[in-house]
Design brief:
4 helices
Length: about 100
């Protein structure tokens, strides 16, 4: 292995998953650039761009749905029942003792 790759892999190895993610994204981008340079303009305009547009619309719909669910879930309350009389009196006593000590 060349010194470049050994140094690069040792540096990225100490970074955990983010280093491997960086390498994966880098290789995918290089592959897409090479693939884009090989494809003709007719293929790109006739097939690739409409497909990317469709994937973009689906991605926007999924992100919008996730955002909407996150916004509506923020205001939900958990299943918290009412306190019994004994629990209420203990809570009041605890609050009263805290306010006296301050």
């Amino acid at each position: 292995m060349s010194p470049f790759w050994s140094i690069t892999l040792s540096e990225l190895g100490g970074r955990g998953r983010t280093g491997m993610l960086f390498l994966a994204v880098l290789f995918v981008l290089v592959f897409l650039a090479l693939l884009g340079s090989v494809l003709s303009a007719e293929v790109v305009h006739g097939w690739v761009l409409p497909t990317l547009g469709l994937f973009g619309i689906v991605l926007l719909a999924l992100l919008g749905r996730a955002f909407w669910l996150a916004c509506t879930r923020k205001h939900e309350r958990g299943a918290v029942g009412e306190l019994s009389d004994d629990e209420l009196s203990k809570a009041r006593a605890k609050l009263a003792s805290r306010s006296i000590t301050k």
